[in-house]
Amino acid sequence: MALPRLGIIGIGRMGAPMSRRLMEAGYSLTVTDRNADAVAKLVAAGAASAPTPAAVTEAADVVLLSLPTPDIVDAVAFGADGIGTVAGAGKTVVDLSTTGPEGAKALAAGLSAEGFTVVDCPVSGGVGGAEKGTLALMASGDAAAYEALMPMFEVLGKPFLVGPDPGMGQMTKVMNNLLSVAALAVTSEALVLGQKAGLDPKVLVDVINVSSGQSNASMTKIPKFVLTRSFDFGFAIGLSNKDIRLCLESANALGVPMVVGSSVLELLKIANAKLGGDADLTQIIQPIEEWAGVTVGGED
Ligand code: NAD
Questions:
Q1: Judgement on whether residues 119 and 193 belong to the same structural domain of the protein
Q2: Would you tell me how many other CB atoms lie within 10 Å of the CB of residue 206?
Q3: For the segment 233-256, what is each residue's pLDDT rounded down to a tens digit?
Q4: Has this prediction a pTM greater than 0.85?
Q5: Which of 8, 9, 14 most suits a substitution to test ligand 1, by most atoms within 8 Å of the C-beta?
Q6: Residue 15 alpha carbon to ligand 1 centre in Å
Q7: Residue 1 lies in a domain
Q8: 180 shares a domain with 119
Q9: pLDDT tens-digit readout, 185-224
Q10: Is 224 a catalytic residue?
Q11: How confident is the model at residue 3, as a pLDDT?
């Protein structure tokens, strides 16, 4: 069977490497993005470009979104020249962005009314996972639509159908990110304490990584992006802030207390205010270093 024609709206840190993998797997691709440089790079790699989300949708059977925030997804779907201005019968929209459960429900309701099949499918695994095709894909929606998308999902990573309702994928994703950022935040605090106490942070990380304090933060983010002071993990603090806010909003709506989660969000807000939303998530350690008067892995 012929491969579906793909469209991708949003070819930033995540969308661009996913696009490249899909083209390497033989999919034809039409892209659009506000950033002309990002479009030019993918066109040079073999993609077609289209001026608007509507034009991408016209050219594609399956439209993928990899956009920063729920508001932007809403505008791309329902604004002038948006996806919803095109007849949706026979077309599927897959939202790979992190938009929270409420955003996913609104997207599915609005686009289903125009005849589209909608699959909520946020991803985890970062830019490295997008490049290597090792993302976790957290889909929710119609099982038959999910099955039909399976070959494409497998180019990107490991797909899971977490439930039948729009928003269940998003709920899974924002919970995962809360766990991930909580581990990074508390490991950052511990390393600042270790530095202040005169311990060598590299030795400390080696010990933690064979002890019960181990996490993805201690295994990967801290050694690769903090101890090297490169701070180029590739995920913006502003977007992480949005993810944890979405998680806490859902917890609030469902009446679930989030004592630790609230602290994580406060620390993110401080880092966001001090460093700007474009700073790398791994820079969350910097306000803690400043308060303590030490630099982890640096001279103090
Ligand atoms: P990014 O900011 O690098 O990329 C977003 C792209 O969308 C940019 O190229 C931007 O120009 C484009 N864009 C913005 N508004 C647009 C519009 N109206 N029309 C067309 N294009 C528009 O963000 P990212 O890091 O690639 O993240 C994308 C999504 O994936 C976010 O929802 C994020 O939370 C999620 N995510 C990111 C990571 C990561 O590690 N970077 C991991 C998992 C999930």
A1: no
A2: 13
A3: 999 999 999 999 999 999 999 999
A4: yes
A5: 14
A6: 7
A7: no
A8: no
A9: 999 999 999 999 999 999 999 999 999 999 999 999 999 9
A10: no
A11: 95
